[in-house]
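Worked problem 6 (solution included).
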Amino acid sequence: MVDYKTDVDFHCYEIEKCNQRGGRMLTVVDLIKRGTLTITQASFLMEEISKGSSFIVGAKPGGAGKTTVMCALLNFLPPGIKIIPAENMEILEKGKNREKSCFLCHEIGKGPYYAYLWGEELLKFFELKKYGHIIVSNLHADTLNEAKIQITRQNPVPEELFNSVELYIFLKVERKGWEYSRKIDKIWKREKGKYVEFVEGNFRPERKYIDFIKSTVSEDIFIMRDFRKAFVEFFLQNLKGEEDALKS
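Solution. The predicted structure is:
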């Protein structure tokens, strides 16, 4: 049985490490109310991530909101799946022998920054998929092809490992007068050996996921800890059967 209080505390602690700009970390409710995500997109991503899908968020410009979206979506991870920052090669190597976890690369990129990965370390990160782990990150790319070039040509990651990531999510930034708007532009899901674009109407999330998202929006759950707690309670009430499957 998952101790949800412990789950919520450690989960939110690890996500807070990604907070580069200070202030409150945003939730999916914030993103919906700001027009970044639709309720249907959020419900679809909740269904996929709560079942153990890995995901990578992309946008070429700095400040586009990649980390914000990535962290908000991390709150859909199944309870009991620990977030482990991919800090260095030693942690990546030890991942082979760990119980199922979510390894978090703060960004795919060069530089001496915390949990940034490139080169051989990025390869080891992707190889964790072979041991049943979830991997999550973001990168500077606007399209699936740009992401593929960066990961498989600029880095030694084979295409089969690139294709092992179930979801690639891309943001679009548009200028409107003096302000900028950010929205999820493309969602690609790996299905039957290829990536299929999520188009509202083609993929229909189960009603329970839509109802949960709508309830969090109507209740204005803007605090990350409160959102995670609500999700864990939902998971334990509605998706308990998924828990054992995820750990196998």
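Discussion: The two ends are 15 Å apart (CA to CA).
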